[in-house]
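User: Need the bound-state model for methionine sulfoxide:
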Amino acid sequence: MTHPDYPLLARQLDALLDDNDWLVNTAQTCAFIMQQVPDLNWAGFYLQRQPELLTLGPFQGKPACNPIPFTKGVCGAAARSRETQRIDDVHAVADHIACDAASNAELVVPILREEALWGVLDLDSPQPGRFGESDQAGIEALIRVFVTRTDLPDFLASR
Ligand code: SME
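Assistant: Bound-state model below.
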């Protein structure tokens, strides 16, 4: 398996995000990850635009499930726990939501705004066990770059 140079990717993402607009930056971040991290079949954002519900945001890959309640799936588990979910085999997860039959491994990183859940970054791979601890740490670091460079709107307050 190829191991990406995550510190290099973090510097490149920081240079790429030259605008603080959340829509531009979510689109650019998932496109960048899809290009630079090997063996992914889906990379994208789900955003908490209504309470306890994840709405599909910018992504790369096949059309995906929408919306996802906080009670469901790996994304819901990340949203509820606010902890990264790293799954070697999604078929072993009882309530995994299968959007693309090619997906076997999944990594979901929560994104917080003022201690509330803003959204999640969801990565899928056809390769079982694709995401190791170093991938988790590397992708979490990319999300820190995204959060630092982005003006995250308060979707829940503006409804
Ligand atoms: N598998 C996810 C749903 C999102 S898709 O993978 C894009 C889940 O169980 O939450």
